[in-house]
Structure formats: C-alpha cells, structure tokens
Amino acid sequence: MNNNSADIIIIGAGASGLMAAYTAAKYSCAKVILLEKNNQIGKKLLITGKGRCNLTNNCSVDEFLNNVCTNRKFLMSAINSFSPQKTIAFFEELGLALKTERGKRVFPISDSARDVVQTLKNAIKKENISLRLNSNVVSVQHNTANTFSVKLETGEELYCNRLIIATGGKSYPQTGSTGSGFTFAKKLGHKLIAPHPSLVPIVTQESWCRELQGLSLRNVRLTLYKNQIKKPLFSEIGELLFTHFGLSGPLVLTASAFVGNSPPSEYKIAIDLKPGLENKQLNTRLVRDLAGNNKDLCNALKKLLPLRLVPIIIQLAQIDPRKKANQVTSLQRAQLIETIKNLTLTPQCLRGFNEAIITAGGINTNEVNPKTMESKLVAGLYFAGELLDLDALTGGFNLQIAFSTGYAAGLHCAQQYKNLTT
Fold first, then answer.
1. Are 375 and 402 in contact (CB under 8 A)?
2. Sequential DSSP letters for 13-62
3. Which of 191, 251, 360, 394 is the most exposed place for a label (fewest CB within 10 A)?
4. d(Cα 110, Cα 354) in Å, to the nearest integer?
5. Residue 1 pLDDT more than 70?
C-alpha cells in the first residue's frame, strides 16, 4: 500500500475525527490517514468553553438524552456504547486530569483546552496514524470498486476502502468549519436538513436593548413561548446579557436551540427580573420603597433594579419618570410589577454562524445507521459529529455527541477491516 492509499481515511481532525481515527487504529491494524485542512488539529476544540474546553457532562445516559434537541432516539445506541463516563475514563487513561463543575460540566483540571488537544495529539501519534495537516479536501468520489478517491486542493488524490467524513458544521468558519462536508455528502447522494446556527445570540425587534448594551443580569428567569401558546418551550433561571442587537448570554444561547429553523418572529421572550419574589411580595416591597418617598420614581427604584434598567422599566410601564414615588397609584404599581415580572421581547432573527456555538441541521439521520454511523446509501461511507442532524444544549453535550459518533464510526471501520483480513 503506497502513501496515497489507506484502509481508512478520515476527513477532519476535530473532536469527532480525532476520536474516529484513534478508535479505528487502536482496534485494528488498518492503515489510517487523518486529513486536516488547518495547520493544527482541534482548532475548534481550542476555543470551546472560552478556552477551557467543556469536554462532556458527567450525567447518566437518560439525563444526557434529555438535553439532546434533535434526533435523540438516533443517538441512543452511540451514547450507550460510548457514554460520558467512558469519555471521562478515556481522557484520564491518556493522562489528562479532569474535574466536574456546576451543572456536571467536565473540564481539564488545568482549565486549558490546549491540554485536551495535546492529549489527543499524543494519542493518535501513539497509534501510528498518518496525520496530514494543511490538506484541504476539495472533492470525494465513490468508485465502482467500492473504494473512495479523495482529492486535495493541491491536486493530489488519495484512495481508501472506508471513508469517514467528520468536517464539522458551519459554526465558527474561522476554525475551518465551512460546511464542505455537506457538499461532499450531497454529491454522494445524501439529503440535508437545512443547516442553521444554534446556541447563538438573538436579535430582538425592541430597539431599547441597545441602550442597555453591556448590562449583564444574573438570577433572572427567561421563558420562551411560541405563537401565544401558554405552555413555554423553555424556562430557566440564569444569566443574560443585553447587546447592541438584542440578547446574549447563557440563557439566551440555550433558548435559541428551541427556536430551531422556524421564523424567530413567531416567538416571544419573557424575562422575570425578580423570580425570587411573587407578585404579592414584590407589591409589598414596592409599597415599602415608594410610600413616603418624595424622590422621583427613577431614584426610588435604584435599590430594586440595576440603575441603567430603571428608566426602561418605567417607560415600558408607561409612567412619567418624573413622578414622585409617593404619588404612584396602585394601578401604576401593578403596571410596574407586570413589567418587572414579564419583560417581553420579540426575536427578529438569530445571529449567524460566526457567533453560533454549533450548527443544527445537517445530514438526514434516516440515511445513516445509528449503531455504526455508516451511510445506508453508500457502503463504506461514514459520518461523525456536527455534520449530522444532531444538536444539544450547552454543558458538554455537543462534544459528547462528537466523541460518541466518532467512536461508533471508528470502531465499525476497525471491525470491518478485521473481518476482511481474518
């Protein structure tokens, strides 16, 4: 076998591609080539978790699946075969010390994503995988002899019996995730669920958000509704951030996953600024703060709300900001309570792939074997990671999907190779 051919070729040295390559090589004697368009592996891994790399979530399989937004049933086999606990054990056995933080999020003790990437780099080196950096794939072809040809930007062609495409989605294109894998999959006969950004900030119709740019709120409740349906799609207490275009922060990124590919304008966001106080308790607080207070209402609310937020709340409650606190009527107090407990915004659109943590949509999972990640349309073709129509909430779940699907693809390739050579 020459340098231009291999038993297994993997395109993409991100989380899923690295896991697939390592697993394929470890469990067989196959010649494995790993192609990466960048000059280093794991470029997106380096920026995940703000450079700390939230590897997985130390939860049960059932809990994990509850945090999967799309096609959780498809993931059941892969996640049971390579669970979060197996991911933790995998890295610890390779010498990377880990810790579990709030929300069961798992990080390296060093808080450095570089240590995660270096651990994976050492692992594939140990398995004698042929890593080829600066190797941009421009096309793939399935040949009549059930082999694949992979053409590089340089014009060089490589050949293999099994091909794993793990190129990622379209989020953070500066890391190399340009959606090329979707193009390859379509050429090989696969259908796509329209890729769209997820876990991404939200642009709102309300212009007053711009006046609050940079204001971060903690311990508020964000609730997402669709089309006036009373039951919320999402409701959680946490942190959010006002921006020049609308909203960002952990709560908002999570809420965006529930918008999916529907028009965002069909949704409503309600923010409870004081979730720890019921309406009656908040009324008692306002009566205490306002009664006998001869200051302007703006000044009287400074202890209750962030200073920059006060004039916005008064304006939305349709009260004159110069009104004296002790002159506020019970009806106006009720308007204040309604605004504080139900600050409503209308999404206009989601921000783009440049700001999205993940890509939702992708290769239709109906055309992929859930146990092996092998194409049902083309024998010997596999997919792994963000390329598939799979996505989950924040907290390490999406990286776990990458590791589990990469493991399944790599393991089945190894088993197929062993079956042919024994």
1. no
2. -SHHHHHHHHHHHHTS---EEEE-SSSSS-TTGGGGGGGT---EE---HH
3. 191
4. 27
5. no
Residue 330 lies in domain: 201-351
Q: In the predicted model, what is the mean pLDDT of residues 377-390?
A: 97
One domain for residues 37 and 77 = yes
- State yes or no: pLDDT of 228 exceeds 80: no
CB 185 within 8 A of CB 165: yes
- The C-alpha atoms of residue 147 and residue 134 are separated, in whole angstroms, by 24
The 10 Å Cβ neighbour count of residue 269 is: 24
Same domain (yes/no): 108, 121:
yes
Amino acid at 42: G
Domain end residue (candidates: 328, 351, 374)? 351
pTM for this entry: 0.93
Residues 229 and 319 in one domain: yes
Polymer length in residues for the chain = 422
Whole-number Å distance between alpha carbons of 332 and 4: 76
Structure tokens at 5: 């051919």
Same domain? For 233 and 143 the reply is no
Domain CATH number, residue 58: 3.50.50.60
pLDDT at 320 (0 to 100): 92
Question: Residue 403 belongs to what H/E stretch?
Answer: helix 397-421
Average pLDDT over residues 222-231: 90
User: Quick one: 243 and 276 in the same domain?
Assistant: yes
Same domain, yes or no, for 115 and 78? yes
CA distance 332 to 206: 22
Q: Is the dihedral of CA 386, 353, 119, 124 positive or negative?
A: positive
- Buried-exposed string 347-380: b where 16+ CB fall within 10 A, e elsewhere: bebbbebeebbbbbbbbbbebbbbebbbbeebeb
121, 177: one domain: yes
DSSP class of residue 302? T
Determine the Cα–Cα distance for residues 299 and 368; give it in Å rounded to an integer. Answer: 61
Domain boundary among 351, 381, 401: 351
- Name the helix (H) or strand (E) containing 399: helix 397-421
Q: Which residues contact 132 (CB under 8 A, 6 or more apart)?
A: 33, 34, 35, 36
Claim to verify: residue 373 and residue 267 sit in the same structural domain: no
CA end-to-end span of the chain: 18
pLDDT tens per residue, range 322-357: 899 999 999 999 999 999 999 999 999 999 999 999
